[in-house]
């Protein structure tokens, strides 16, 4: 419970900094994560497991994932803000976690999507495929709109100046919506 609560607080702070809605703080996600963790607690391969890195009594990083067979999927993590964030907290936590997982028989790992340095320390990138199948005229129109939006987002993220502006705009809109 303490690890989940810390994860929620750290994610809330990080998403607020980024100007993004914290979906993990929604009641449905909180219930879902707790249910998965509670119902499989004590099993060899729980449906959901939180791991934490402690600095004394303080949790400075969390990791949430699952294992099936000999494969581990890392879903999401969080780190403390402030002075502690200067250090590669998630890198330290994952290095310790991966040592434990290898000892438990894990032979493959999925770090999920996203461009983060800690992911390339342990995994090689693999191509991602994005498929939208439309079966109606309306569906084809929606598919085209989604494809255009995805291309635009990719273009912005790959251009440092545009990405900086987009992040600033996102933070501003978040503050306006949340009265901050």
Description of the structure:
This protein has helices at residues 2-18, 27-39, 89-103, 117-122, 137-158, 160-177, and strands spanning 49-55, 58-68, 71-79, 108-110. The chain is of the alpha+beta class and 180 residues long. The protein has a 4-stranded mixed β-sheet with strand order 1-2-3-4.
Class computed from helices, strands and strand pairing: alpha+beta
Number of helices: 6
Helicity range: 40-55%
Classify the beta-strand content into a percent band. 15-25%
Total strands: the figure is 4
| C-alpha Rg (nearest Å) | 19 Å
Q: What's the shape?
A: globular
Question: What is this structure's SSE topology?
Answer:
Layout: H1 2-18, H2 27-39, E1 49-55, E2 58-68, E3 71-79, H3 89-103, E4 108-110, H4 117-122, H5 137-158, H6 160-177
Parallel strand pairs: 3-4
Antiparallel strand pairs: 1-2, 2-3
Fill in the keyword field for this structure.
180 residues, alpha+beta, 4 strands
């Amino acid at each position: 419970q303490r690890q989940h609560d810390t994860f929620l607080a750290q994610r809330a702070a990080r998403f607020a900094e980024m100007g993004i809605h914290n979906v993990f703080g929604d009641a449905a996600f909180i219930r879902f994560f707790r249910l998965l963790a509670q119902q499989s607690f004590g099993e060899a391969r729980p449906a959901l497991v939180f791991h934490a890195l402690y600095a004394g009594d303080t949790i400075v990083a969390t990791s949430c994932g699952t294992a099936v067979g000999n494969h581990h999927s890392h879903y999401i993590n969080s780190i403390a803000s402030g002075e502690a964030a200067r250090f590669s907290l998630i890198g330290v936590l994952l290095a310790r976690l991966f040592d434990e997982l290898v000892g438990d028989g894990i032979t493959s790992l999925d770090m999920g999507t996203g461009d983060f340095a800690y992911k390339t320390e342990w995994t090689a990138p693999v191509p991602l495929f994005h498929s939208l199948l439309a079966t109606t005229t309306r569906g084809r129109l929606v598919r085209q709109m989604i494809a255009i939006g995805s291309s635009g987002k990719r273009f912005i993220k790959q251009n440092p100046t545009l990405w900086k502006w987009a992040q600033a705009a996102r933070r501003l809109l978040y503050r306006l919506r949340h009265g901050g």
